């Protein structure tokens, strides 16, 4: 009598296990929240005193093994190129303005907490991203590059966040970081065009929100 009872019990346990596995298999996977995008299609144009505006991206992310810019939702060099193509518009009768992206590296490093116990347990770790951006602008006419109407803009910014944040939260913070960087770039480009190139556009509005969703809460 004992053996049949064990057999029935084993079958019952196996049946419960199969039902549990089936329930786990059919449970819908968690939906990943959509991440906003940087949009430059509706920004106010900045008309420069040139017949042409040429935007060129010379940066090659694969050239630097430490560069992690391709892990961002939008690569900085691509975002800068989109910005320049939409923001800077020809409004003159001659010459050309060249906008060149020379560097857009991002380095990442892990910051460990000062507390040794927390560090040993893996708590309190942070990820820091540092961007190195270099842009070059110059004006050319039939003779060539005009002396005094050229300039290089350098930007160095850092973003720090807990290593434990979710992927969606990480990408949102990276996008907000890029959005603020783009506003800094626009302010510097506008100032350079006005002061070094004598190309001031009083109708151009400062960049507002570039993200397609509300602010991160």
TrEMBL record:
It comes from the Bacteria. PROSITE patterns: PROKAR_LIPOPROTEIN. The keyword Signal applies. Keywords: Signal. Residues 1-25 form the signal peptide. This is Lipoprotein. It comes from Micavibrio aeruginosavorus.
């Amino acid at each position: 009598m004992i053996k049949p009872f064990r057999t029935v019990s084993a079958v019952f346990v196996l049946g419960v296990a199969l039902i549990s596995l089936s329930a786990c298999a059919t449970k819908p996977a968690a939906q990943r929240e959509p991440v906003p995008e940087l949009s430059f299609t509706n920004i106010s144009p900045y008309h420069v005193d040139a017949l042409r505006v040429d935007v060129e991206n010379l940066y090659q992310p694969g050239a630097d093994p430490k560069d992690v810019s391709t892990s961002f939702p939008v690569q900085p060099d691509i975002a800068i190129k989109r910005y320049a193509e939409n923001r800077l518009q020809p409004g003159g009768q001659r010459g050309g303005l060249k906008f060149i992206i020379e560097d857009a590296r991002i380095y990442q490093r892990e910051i460990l907490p000062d507390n040794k116990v927390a560090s040993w347990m893996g708590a309190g770790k942070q990820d820091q991203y540092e961007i190195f951006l270099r842009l070059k602008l110059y004006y050319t006419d039939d003779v060539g590059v005009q002396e005094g109407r050229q300039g290089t803009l350098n930007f160095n910014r850092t973003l720090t966040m807990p290593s434990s944040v979710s992927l969606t939260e990480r990408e949102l913070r990276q996008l907000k970081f890029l959005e603020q960087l783009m506003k800094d770039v626009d302010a510097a480009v506008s100032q350079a065009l006005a002061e070094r190139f004598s190309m001031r556009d009083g109708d151009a509005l400062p960049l507002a929100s570039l993200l397609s969703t509300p602010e991160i809460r």
